[in-house]
Amino acid sequence: MRLGIAGIVIHRLLLIIYIIKLNKVKDFIPVLIAVIPFVFVFSYLLSISDGIPEGSYYPLLVQNILVSILGGVILSNYFMNETTNTPWLSIFGVLSIGLYFTVFIEKFFLNNLPPTYFRPLGMVLFVTSYYAFYKFVIDVERLNAVVKENNE
Question: Tell me: the pLDDT tens digits for 23-46?
């Protein structure tokens, strides 16, 4: 279980770093402002949940912070880079936050329901969110190639 948590943390960190690198984020004040609502929502959900297994509180706290940073980076990009913004990053952000929210609610608030209710929704959100991320990366790479070609 600890290797899985470490893998997810590393994956989310690399995802955040890659998005920051692709968008060439230079000012982190809008990112910090955009992180605040996500931190409040996920911290509140974590504080009111009763079914957290022992030893899972701190990994969940780290996941909440990473998902909040991811949401903040995407939200600040949406508002700050209106001219070069691709809609795929916004779609990826909405789907990723929705996926985390759905899994969190399923695991800690609706754990008495059978998994057949939320597992298909989680799978669809996962696949479509990473497809949107793939399209975002392709669009940004294409735009960077065009800009590079025009500068030469």
Answer: 888 888 989 999 999 999 988 888
